[in-house]
Amino acid sequence: MRSIKAQFKNLYAFSVIVSLIHCLCGLSTLEAKANNESSDPLAVREIEAIRAEVPPTIDGKLDDSCWKNSAKTGELIQFEPQRGKSATQPTTIYVAYDENKLYVAFECFKTDMNNLAANQTRRDAFFFSDDHVEVLIDTFLDGRNCYTFALNPLGTQTDRRLTNEGANRRTGSSSIGTAISWDCDWEGKAAKETDKWVAEFAIPFAELRFSKASQTATWGINFWRNDEVPAEEQTWTDLGERQYAVSRFGRLTNLPISELITKRPVKFKPYATLKPQALQPNDGETETAVKTDAGLDLRYPIKDFTVDLTVNPDFAQIEADPDLVNLSDIPLRFPEKRPFFLEGNELFQMPLDLFYSRRVEDLIGGGKAIGKFSKYNLAFMGAVAGPEDADKELEAGELPLANYNYAVFRLQREVGRTSSIGVLAVNKQRGRAYDRAGGMDARIQLPADLNLNLEYAREWKAGGLEMIDNTADDLIFLQLVRRSNVFSVDAIYADIGEHFNPETGFVPRVDRRGFVLNSRYNKQYKGTLERLRGEAEYERLANHTGELTNHRARFSGLIGVRDLFFFLGPEWYYHINEDNIPFTDRTVRFFAGWFPPKYVQIRNTSSFGVRDNKDTFFIRPEITIRPTAKLSFEFILQRLHEREPETTQWQLSEWTRRFIVNYQFAQRMYARASAEFTVEKERRVFALFAYEYRPESNFFIVYNDNRDVEGNTERLVFIKVAHLLKTNLF
User: How many degrees, rounded to 5, is the angle at CA 265 between CA 264 and CA 269?
Assistant: First the structure.
């Protein structure tokens, strides 16, 4: 009977999703009407593309003749705190192009240059408290996706590729990096003068994707400036309440596509490594060895597609994830850092991800193709990875050297201006054992900035390390969400099957059915009081036997006064753990931070209350010191105190200490060192010198000194050279 009910439920869910997707095309008219109703004359500002006879020198100075004859604009308006009012400080923007590149310059006037905030020196840094400017380009004029390029006054570059008006811009400390993972070979420089600072951009057309069907094109474009000391976020076009409202961008007109050089070369990037290594067991003699290795990355462009291949990639220059205390029952989601997985990673995202690239460990080789044709986005990836846990596999009678094969396929179609539908299929297999999942999702834009997100997925599993019987189960997800900079609401209903848990995905909870409601108010103000934020969330979930498993109510409030920020969040949470033991938690989260424009930032995160029937107290103080623009020190401590109800003695975990030093010799040359000592006597020391001696060609020297909980020590020096070769022969 249960099987019949399950099949009926699956059929019903499938029919509902299909019906909604079938109606999606009809909603495009409603969507367009909603967009027209919310449009504003400022949202269709235009700037004409003017050709530069001689390209400018990208040095942060406006002394090139190119800028005198370029298109000019300005008159930025405030996005925050006084939406729609003129910016306090003037900005002049210059735009030009030649057959190779799009050139943009910002002239940012400032009454008091001593109040210029510039701290971040690492590429792709998050400009949370820096002055910065940004160019956002919608090359397909689809009103949903865009490239963004940003510079701060130190010339630090950040680039991103946003999809569905920023839907892939995940928030939260454990998931930042999804949109920012895209990298582009572009030039950017900044320079400071007595009453202003200047930023210059040179963006190659060959690095962007766009339609070449017409002779002349119009692109969506917006210009952004963050003026930190008056706490103003400024925009060229009126975006309403959403910072990444691509559908409201202005226009870059008369761009002669037929005259542009857009052919992308084939890129070969071979690497070679030298790795002296010393292993010192806790009770044995030191073993030394010297290993060498080599590998190859290849990028082959085909019209609007890019094919990436990698053989024997090595990611030793990537620093390990920090040791974090997770006080929730939801696993942390760390960002992807490995270069092979970064390009197009955002296309694989779904409301609940069936493919999370961090699940692919010990990558041996792989290939992927990513591109866009007409209204379709397509991505395919195949990879071979080594065994995940050789000891566990030996115990289960498996071959420890057997590899896993991965295959992922994603197809997404754009509907209307900002809606979309898509399918994804993923397979992880070794021999006859497999874990497969497939699903469809849809994003439907409704009036009043509302979005309806839908997902239906199913998983099939056979064999595996645990030698489980064949199973199949499904997932249903519905979300009605409005996300804006002021007022946001989020309503979710999810039904995650008892056996739905794809090994390739990120599904934090299994065997759950219920809903989550969330609302948030966030407002910036002019004056001493800079920010107010309030948030409320209610969650109620049960398993498929009807037993209540998660029941949560939490509230939080944040206030910002000048450079000081305070956060307080009480929470009541009833939940059942993996051993079916119920707990009722009553906790309070607290945060305090001081973020002045220069020199130092101090913050502390803490939590106290009853958690899992234990009195708990957690503290994590952090300080960042920047004596100069190029040098920074970070000190992070964390400690967890716990006490059983029947005892009076606190059980104190040792301090976890993390020390980090960064020094930026130049934009493409930096050194970084960190030392971390964990609560379990572990030690992780990491030092890196990185030099990008030419675009996408790198030299790394890495030192690692790691000690595990048993006292075994591994020390190694790692030297890597990767050199980019380009050719137009193919």
Answer: 125
Q: Any idea how long the chain is?
A: 730
Which of the residue ranges 160-164, 178-182, 547-551 has the most confident prediction, judged by mean pLDDT?
547-551
- CATH T-level assignment (fold) for domain 38-259: Immunoglobulin-like (2.60.40)
At residue 37, the pLDDT reads 39
Cα 495 to Cα 472: distance, rounded to the nearest angstrom: 14
Query: In terms of Cα–Cα distance, which of 555, 605, 616, 606 is closest to 583?
Result: 616
- Cβ neighbours of 197 (radius 10 Å): 23
Sheet containing 187-192: give its strands across.
Answer: 71-74, 91-97, 101-109, 196-204, 187-192
Residue 27: pLDDT band (50, 70, 90) is very low
- Sketch the domain layout of the chain as residue ranges: 1-36+330-483, 38-259
Q: Which two tokens stand for residue 99?
A: 């057959």
Q: Which two three-digit tokens encode residue 696?
A: 């996408």
The CB density around residue 546, as the number of other CB atoms within 10 Å, is: 7
Q: Whose CA is closest to 711, among 677, 681, 676, 679?
A: 681
Cα–Cα distance for residue pair 349/352, rounded to 1 Å: 8
Q: Determine the residue type at 704.
A: N
Say how far apart CA 668 and CA 681 lie, in whole Å.
35
Q: What is the mean pLDDT of residues 464-476?
A: 70
**What pTM was computed for the model?**
0.78
Highest mean pLDDT among 159-168, 216-225, 345-354: 216-225
First to last CA, the chain: 60
Quote the CA–CA distance of 510 and 513 in Å, as a whole number: 9
Name 670's Cβ contacts closer than 8 Å, sequence gap at least 6: 121, 122, 662, 663, 664, 689, 690
Sign of CA dihedral 126, 129, 133, 139: positive
Q: Give the integer Cα–Cα distance in Å for 436 and 57.
A: 52
DSSP 6-57: HHHHHHHHHHHHHHHHHHHHHHHHHHHHHHHHT--GGGG-EEE--B-SSPPP
- 726 and 265 Cβ atoms separated by less than 8 Å: yes
598: how many CB neighbours lie within 10 A of its CB? 15
